Amino acid sequence: MLPSQTRAGEWFLHSGIQEPNGGVARYYCADAGLNRAVSTEITGYTASALVYLHSLTREPSYLERAGLAGRFLSRTAWSAPACAMPFELEPPGFTYFFDCGIVVRGLLAVWRATSEGEFLEAAARLGRAMARDFASPDGWNPILALPDKKPIEREAARWSRSSGCYQLKAAMAWWDLWEATGAPQFRELYTGTLEDALRNPSAFLPGHADRFKVMDRLHAFLYFLEGLLPCAAEARCAAALRDGIRAVERHFGEIAPEFERADVCAQLLRIRLYADWAGAVPLDLAAARREAARLAAFQVSSADARMDGGYYFGRRAKAWVPHVSPVSTAFALQALALWEQTQTGGAQPHRHLLI
User: For residues 299 and 337, what is the distance between their CA atoms, to the nearest angstrom?
Assistant: First the structure.
C-alpha cells in the first residue's frame, strides 16, 4: 500500500473511532474533541473497510478488528425482542432500511474473510427482516420506529427520509445473500428493487434548490450507481451508469468550489473504475486523475492520533468541515488504492470488496 493508505488503516486501528466492543462512532468531531455516538451503519461500513485492508496487506490486526465489528453487529446491536437492527443503541429508537443493507454487506464481508457461520447467519436474518418489515406499496419504507416498527412519515426534500433509487445499494445486500445462500427470494428482492430504481433515476438530481443539499444528494445518487454493479453488463444498467456518471460529474464540478464532500469524490472515482472493469463505461483517465488528486487533499495530517490519517468529511470554500469520518476514510482509501491498481496494472478486485 501507499503511505497514505497505510496511515488511513492506522487511523481505523488507533484513533479510537472503534470502541472496545467493536462498535464504530459516526465520526470524530475535531472541534469538540469527541466521537459521535456509535452507529450500526458505520460499524457495517468499517467492517467492510477492515476486510478490504486485510485483503491488501494480510495484516491480522485488520481481520481481528473486522471480526470485532461483526460480533458487535451480530450479538450486541441486534435486538432479538424487536427482531431488528437499530440505527443507534442509545436509545434504539429507529431502524433504517439503507443502514440494514450496509450492515448485511459488512457481515458478509467478515464471513467471506473468516468463514465463521455466525456472520452469514446474522446477515441472512437481517436480510429477511428487511424484506418483511420495510415493505410498502410504493417502495421500501426508509425508516421505522422501534419497537412497533411503524413507518416514519417521509420527507421528499430529505433523501434519507424518502424512498428512492439510492436504496439499490442496500438492496444489493440481497443479491450478495443470494450468492452466499442460493436462496432465490434474495435475488428476486434485488431484481424487484432494481426495476423500481431504473424507472426514473434522473429525477433524483438535482432534487433540491439548495446547492449544498444537491451535493448531499450526489452522495446518495452514487449509491444507486454502485447498486447497479451486479447487473452492470446489462444494456440498460450500463446506460444508467454512463448517464449517471456524467450527471454527477457535472453537478460536482459546479458545486465543489463552494462545498465538496470527500465521499462524493471517492464514490465518483470508484464507480468510474468499477464501471470500466465491468465493460459498461470506458474510463475517462483525465477525469479520474483529477479526482484522485483532489481526494488525496482531504487526508488529515496531525500530531493527534484521533485525526491523523483519517479523511475530513468535506470542505466549504477553503475551510475543512471539522469531522473526521470513517465513511470518507473508507471510501477514499479504497478509491485511491483502486486508482493505484489501475496505474500499475494490478488485479481487478471483486465487486464483493466494494465498501
Answer: 14
Report the residue count for the chain: 355
Amino acid identity, position 179:
E
Proportion of the chain above pLDDT 70, given as a percent: 100
Mean pLDDT on 105-133: 98
CA distance 320 to 299: 11
Q: Please say if the pLDDT value at position 289 is more than 90.
A: yes
Average pLDDT, the chain: 96
Rounded CA separation 179/303 (Å): 44
- What Rg, from alpha-carbon coordinates, does the chain have? 19
Find cell 474473510 and name the residue.
113
CA distance linking residue 335 with residue 337, whole number of Å: 5
Chain-centre distance for alpha carbon 85: 17
Residue 143 identity (one-letter amino acid): I
Task: Please tell me the distance from the alpha carbon of residue 199 to that of residue 206, in angstroms, as a whole number.
Answer: 17
Whether residue 352 is predicted with pLDDT greater than 80 in this model: the reply is yes
Q: Give the closest residue to 265 by CA, choosing from 239, 297, 240.
A: 297
Q: Mind listing the pLDDT tens digit for each residue in 311-326?
A: 999 999 889 999 999 9
CA distance 249 to 238: 17
List the CATH number of the domain containing 235: 1.50.10.10
Residue with cell 450526489: 218
Write out the residue range of the structural domain in which residue 89 sits.
3-353
Q: Which of 266, 257, 251, 277 is nearest to 329 (CA)?
A: 266
Q: Considering its fold, how many domains does the chain have in total? A: 1
**pTM, entire model:** 0.97
The grid coordinates of residue 291 equal: 479526482
The 10s digit of each residue's pLDDT in 20-55 is 999 999 999 999 999 999 999 999 999 999 999 999
Please count the CA atoms within 13 angstroms of the CA of 234 that sit on its side-chain side.
11
